[in-house]
UniProtKB/TrEMBL annotation:
Lineage: Eukaryota, Viridiplantae, Streptophyta, Embryophyta, Tracheophyta
Protein name: sterol 14alpha-demethylase
Catalysed transformations (reactions): a 14alpha-methyl steroid + 3 reduced [NADPH--hemoprotein reductase] + 3 O2 = a Delta(14) steroid + formate + 3 oxidized [NADPH--hemoprotein reductase] + 4 H2O + 4 H(+)
Membrane topology: Single-pass membrane protein
Family: Belongs to the cytochrome P450 family.
Length: 491
């Protein structure tokens, strides 16, 4: 009886042990496997099946973000067809977006639509290792030593352009600044041959390139439509023009201080020099990156300064101080002293970043933790996005985020740093942060210091609205300004 009981007890014990062992193994397996098999996926935006998500995105990505962020938080996914776009909004969740290596988060797929515009063999048409070298060429062409020379052109172009204005009048500031920036960019980037002899031809060709980049081009860059045909023709003609210029510079043994020269002189690590076609492609890329973005920013800066008299007074006082110190001279170092003007530009750019959406394609799973402590796993294969236009106005990062307040960047407040890196993302940041940021500020400061020193200006049209439909988001309609030529009095 006793032995029977012992056997029964043993059986019970064995079953018990087996149960415990099974539970432990199950627990272990769940710990090991759950993060893979049961991901903590971000919440998904509600939309009609198949194309609903796309429709919501195309109707206005920032409108969609404004609606979804309060409901879903800083990390959420928009799905359509077989695509998933996961948005990472705010400094707490976007570090990986900006810092990840190209093998984890890449640009090539999502920015592929630029290839027919920039041309073959450059930027998004080449492997990352080559692209990295080409970005090194950009960095070299925008070094301080080069920028110093470019500033002299910027100042000269502004002087010449505004010398053609009368003693008083009314102008569309947007149109005027767009033109001045094309002229300046031509001089600094494309070189004196284009600026002085071929400006009209080259501008017309760039116009065709520009008009060949439509929202539909992002999805179907090679669609056989007239705008794309004109784009391809223009690209070919530009290639011919730059091949001639490069040829004659080489023949004459001439060297200039411009981006064209810098790209001509650039060499890959293996010693190979750049080809004419690559130089053309890199110049087109530079113009696309820098031209609309800078002209839009200079127009917003003007609109805000003319609307907010207190900041206009502050930038005028700064100009007076600098004129007392340096006379009428303006160069790279003097522009760099314009801190108040810098903050006014930076604040216009916080409110109106021309690149409203930045994208990457994810090649490995990663996790993010929100400021509320929620963790999400973002699977590889997702497109990952962040939005300067939305993230730059987060109320937990910026006080009264919709108010124009350049002093928020002043020492002591430093609102762009207080909430951590990637709080201010008009120029992106991290691994792919804008290489032209110093160039852009110098150019906009050169224009505005000239205007402030030589004219009294008044905004006579209503404060401009945002043109959300443009590829590079800018100012809608005209920005009419009344001007009177009047040198800034130092008293
Ligand atoms: C106000 C003017 C400008 C704004 C707002 C601006 C904005 C940006 C942004 C947001 C990015 C990052 C894109 C991304 O992460 O996907 C970027 C990258 C870049 N920008 Fe700018 N940009 C400006 C002017 C310029 C100028 C003047 C140039 C050159 C002359 C330039 C050259 C570049 C280049 C080469 C990159 C690519 C960097 C990389 O991927 O490593 N930008 N810019």
């Amino acid at each position: 009886m006793a032995s029977m009981e012992l056997v029964a007890d043993n059986k019970l014990l064995n079953v018990g042990l087996l149960l415990v062992a099974t539970l432990i193994v199950a627990k272990l397996l769940s710990v090991l496997l759950l993060p893979r098999s049961n991901k903590r996926l971000p919440p998904v935006v509600k939309a009609w099946p198949v194309l609903g998500g796309l429709v919501r995105f195309l109707r206005g990505p920032v409108v969609m973000l404004r609606q979804e962020y309060p409901k879903l938080g800083s990390v959420f996914t928009l799905s359509f067809l077989n695509k998933n776009i996961t948005f990472l909004i705010g400094p707490e969740v976007s570090a990986h977006f900006f810092k990840a290596s190209e093998s984890d988060l890449s640009q090539q797929e999502v920015y592929q639509f630029n290839v027919p515009t920039f041309g073959p063999g450059v930027v998004f048409d080449v492997d990352y290792s080559v692209r990295q070298e080409q970005f090194r060429f950009f960095t070299e062409s925008l070094r301080v030593t080069k920028l110093k020379g470019y500033v002299d052109y910027m100042v000269a172009e502004a002087e010449e352009y505004f010398s053609k204005w009368g003693d008083s009048g009314e102008v569309d500031l947007k149109y005027e600044l767009e033109h001045l920036i094309i002229l300046t960019a031509s001089r600094c980037l494309l070189g004196e041959e284009v600026r002085n002899k071929l400006f009209d031809d080259v501008s017309a060709l760039f116009h065709d390139l520009d008009n060949g980049m439509l929202p539909i081009s992002v999805i179907f860059p090679y669609l056989p439509i007239p705008a794309h045909r004109r784009r391809d023709e223009a690209r070919k003609k530009l290639s011919g023009i730059f091949a001639n210029i490069i040829g004659s510079r080489k023949q004459a043994g001439k060297s200039e201080n411009d981006m064209l020269q810098s790209f001509m002189d650039s060499k890959y690590k293996d010693g190979r020099p750049t080809t004419e076609s690559e130089v053309t492609g890199l110049l087109i890329a530079a113009l696309f990156a820098g031209q609309h973005t800078s002209s839009i920013t200079s127009t917003w800066t003007g609109a805000y300064l003319l609307r907010h008299k207190e900041y206009l007074a502050a930038v005028l006082d700064e100009q007076k101080d600098l004129m007392k110190k340096h006379g009428n001279r303006v160069d790279h170092d003097i522009l760099s002293e314009m801190e108040v003007l810098y903050r006014c530009i930076k604040e216009a750019l916080r409110l109106h970043p021309p690149l409203i959406m930045l994208l990457r394609s994810s090649h490995s799973d990663f996790s993010v933790k929100t400021k509320e402590g929620k963790e999400y796993d973002i699977p590889k294969g997702h497109i990952v996005a962040t939005s300067p236009a939305f993230a730059n106005r987060l109320p937990h990062v910026y006080k009264n985020p919709d108010t124009y307040d350049p002093d928020r960047f002043a020492a002591g407040r430093d609102e762009d740093k207080a909430a951590g890196a990637f709080s201010y993302i008009s120029f992106g940041g991290g691994r792919h942060g804008c290489l032209g940021e110093p160039f852009a500020y110098l150019q906009i400061k050169a224009i505005w210091s000239h205007l402030l020193r030589n004219f009294e200006l008044e905004l006579i049209s209503p404060f401009p609205e945002i043109d959300w439909n443009a590829m590079v988001v800018g100012v809608k309609g005209k920005v009419m300004v009344r001007y009177k030529r009047k040198e800034l009095s130092l008293n």
